[in-house]
C-alpha cells in the first residue's frame, strides 16, 4: 500500500471515528431524531453539491426506488439508532460496538442469505459479542438499563448495515455508479427520517436548538463524516480495493475512543482495551480469507 493510500485510510478512520463525538455533542441537546434527520439531509445536500461539481451523469437506470429503500436500511435506521445511543453511551462505546459490523454481516448472511458459516466466522461472531459484553459490563460507564438499550441500538444499526450489504450486492452492485447509489441512499434516509423528525417535534420539542458548537458539530457530521467521507471511501475503493479499504473498520474504534477522551473528557478504562482487542480478534476471524477463498 502506498504511503498516500495509508494516509487516506487513516484520515477516513479519523473522520468516521469523529462522527460518534459529534453525535454525542448534538443529540443530548436537540434530541435524537433531529440529530439523525439533520445528519442525513445535510449529507445529502453536501453530496449533491459534490456530484454537481464532479459533473456526474444522472442516470439511475430505473433503480432510484431501490436506492431509496437501501437508504432507509443503510442510513436512515442506523442514523436514528446511533443518535438514540448518543443520549446515553460515551462516544468510545458506540465506536467500538460499530466495529461489529462485519460480524453482523456474517450472521445475517448465514441466517437469511444462504451464506456459508465457517467455524472461524462462527467463533468470530461469538467472540465479538463477548467483547461487547465485556465493554458494557466492565467499562467506565455505569451498567444500567439505559446503557444496555444504547448498546442494543448500536447492534441494531450494525445489523442494518449487514442486511444492506447483501441487498446492495443483489440489487445494485456493478450496475450503477456508486456515487449515485450513495446520493440515492441519503435521499431515502432523509425522506424516512422526515416524519420521525416532525413527530418528535410534535411530541416533545427540544428545549433548546443549541448554539454554534452544536451546529458546527452537525455540519461536521453531515458534510465531513458523511458526504466527504463517501467520496474519500470511493477513492480508496478504486485505489486499493474493497478488502484493504475495509480495514478502516479496525481503526475507527481507536479514533472514536481517542476523540471522546481528548475532546469530551470521557474516562478511559482497561475495558476499552479488553473489549477492543476481543472485537479486533473477532474481526480478524471473520474477514481473514480461507484457503478455499484464496484458491
From TrEMBL:
Domain EamA stretches: 9-136, 149-287
Keyword Protein transport: no
Subcellular location: Membrane
Pfam annotation, one family: EamA
Record's bilayer topology term: Multi-pass membrane protein
SUPFAM superfamilies to which the protein is assigned, alphabetical: Multidrug resistance efflux transporter EmrE
Source superkingdom: Bacteria
Gene Ontology cellular component annotations, sorted alphabetically: membrane
Membrane-spanning intervals of the chain: 7-30, 36-54, 66-89, 95-114, 121-140, 146-168, 180-203, 215-233, 245-264, 270-287
InterPro entries: AA-Vitamin_Transporters, EamA_dom, EmrE-like
Keyword terms: Membrane, Transmembrane, Transmembrane helix
UniProt protein name: EamA domain-containing protein
Phylogenetic placement of the source organism: Bacteria, Pseudomonadati, Pseudomonadota, Gammaproteobacteria, Pseudomonadales
Amino acid at each position: 500500500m502506498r504511503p498516500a493510500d495509508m494516509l487516506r485510510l487513516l484520515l477516513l478512520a479519523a473522520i468516521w471515528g469523529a462522527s460518534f463525538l459529534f453525535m454525542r455533542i448534538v443529540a443530548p441537546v436537540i434530541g435524537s431524531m433531529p440529530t439523525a434527520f439533520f445528519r442525513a439531509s445535510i449529507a445529502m445536500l453536501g453530496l449533491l453539491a459534490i456530484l454537481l461539481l464532479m459533473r456526474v451523469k444522472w442516470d439511475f437506470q430505473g433503480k432510484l426506488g431501490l436506492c431509496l429503500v437501501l437508504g432507509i436500511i443503510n442510513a436512515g435506521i442506523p442514523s436514528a439508532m446511533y443518535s438514540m445511543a448518543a443520549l446515553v453511551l460515551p462516544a468510545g462505546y458506540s465506536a467500538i460496538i460499530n466495529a461489529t459490523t462485519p460480524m453482523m454481516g456474517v450472521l445475517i448472511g448465514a441466517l437469511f442469505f444462504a451464506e456459508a458459516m465457517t467455524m472461524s466466522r462462527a467463533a468470530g461472531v461469538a467472540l465479538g459479542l463477548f467483547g461487547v459484553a465485556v465493554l458494557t459490563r466492565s467499562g467506565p460507564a455505569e451498567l444500567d438499563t439505559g446503557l444496555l438499550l444504547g448498546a442494543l441500538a448500536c447492534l441494531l444499526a450494525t445489523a442494518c448495515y449487514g442486511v444492506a450489504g447483501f441487498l446492495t450486492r443483489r440489487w445494485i452492485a456493478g450496475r450503477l455508479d456508486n456515487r449515485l447509489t450513495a446520493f440515492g441512499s441519503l435521499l431515502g434516509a432523509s425522506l424516512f427520517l422526515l416524519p420521525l423528525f416532525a413527530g418528535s417535534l410534535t411530541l416533545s420539542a427540544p428545549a433548546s436548538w443549541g448554539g454554534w458548537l452544536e451546529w458546527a458539530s452537525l455540519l461536521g457530521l453531515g458534510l465531513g463524516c458523511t458526504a466527504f467521507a463517501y467520496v474519500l471511501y470511493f477513492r480508496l475503493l478504486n485505489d486499493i480495493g474493497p478488502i484493504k479499504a475495509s480495514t478502516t473498520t479496525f481503526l475507527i474504534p481507536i479514533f472514536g475512543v481517542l476523540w471522546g477522551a481528548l475532546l469530551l473528557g470521557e474516562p478511559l478504562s482497561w475495558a476499552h482495551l479488553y473489549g477492543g482487542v476481543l472485537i479486533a480478534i473477532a474481526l480478524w476471524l471473520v474477514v481473514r480469507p480461507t484457503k478455499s477463498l484464496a484458491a
